[in-house]
Design brief:
This protein is an alpha/beta fold and 253 residues long. The chain contains 10 helices and 8 strands.
Length: 253
């Protein structure tokens, strides 16, 4: 992994015309953001587009469709994809790059500025374009190797997707006692900010971190009554939290 500095990008772009293929959430969000950054954007185009007339093509399609979409692109332009877990081999024989925004994209769009971006390129010009596009979006590019991409993407899924799953479980248990989601939101936001500022060990609070096993046992009984199917998740998180608390206690003050 190598974080790239803005100074390494050339002031003169080799890409004036960029075709975005894939009219989904990511395609629409990137097309709009890159157009505002000054690029001539074609698209987002349908998945059968051949990239004619473009200096570069960015494929914003599901992972399973990247190879098929790349095969339809005519020789000439650089070809990239937005997959976090996929390497560059699926883009052969094109000069290839990847740009994966480390940001969630909803139907309402996304704010890319300030986010991280995993990039790669199989030639220096391809890597330079990926870096250029990341900086144009206000993102912080980090070069991720082919071998490390699955682990990188797993970390992103844990940080984003699994957090939503966890909050859905909290919302479900809270709903059983008349507590609505809106009352949990400030707690979640403060917790995330504490984690960002302090790191996991110092941000950890609650009965598990205090070693209050009686309270944890009462919590477990309440979860069993409200949503018994969540007990395996609760037990796994209690154990993981105990291990995190122990790791924090082992650190020097």
């Amino acid at each position: 992994m190598r974080e790239l500095e803005r100074e390494s990008t050339s002031d003169t772009s080799a890409c004036k015309r960029l075709a975005i293929v894939g009219p989904g959430r990511v395609g629409h969000a990137l097309a709009g953001a890159l157009a505002r950054a000054g690029y001539q954007i074609a698209g987002p185009l349908g998945r059968g587009a051949d990239g004619s007339g473009a200096d570069a093509v960015l494929l914003c399609v599901p992972d399973a469709e990247v190879a098929r979409a790349a095969a339809r692109i005519l020789p000439g332009p650089l070809v990239g994809h937005c997959s976090g877990a996929t390497g560059l081999g699926v883009l052969a024989p094109h000069e290839a790059f990847s740009l994966h925004p480390l940001m969630t994209v909803t139907p309402e769009g996304a704010e890319f500025s300030g986010a991280g971006a995993a990039i790669a390129g199989n030639t220096p010009p391809a890597l330079a374009l990926a870096e250029e596009l990341a900086h144009a979006l206000g993102m912080h590019p980090v070069e991720i190797s082919e071998h490390d991409r699955p682990a990188y993407h797993a970390a992103a899924s844990i940080a984003s997707n699994f957090l939503i799953t966890l909050e859905a479980a909290a919302e479900r248990v809270a709903g059983e006692v008349g507590v609505e989601r809106e009352l949990l939101v400030p707690l979640v936001r403060a917790t995330v900010e504490n984690w960002a500022r302090l790191g996991p060990e110092r941000a950890l609070t609650g009965p598990v971190a205090r070693g209050d096993d009686d309270t944890v046992a009462r919590q477990r009984a309440a979860v069993a009554e409200a949503a018994e199917d969540l007990l395996p998740l609760f037990d796994a998180l209690v154990q993981a939290t105990r291990e995190l608390a122990a790791a924090g206690e082992a650190q020097p003050a």
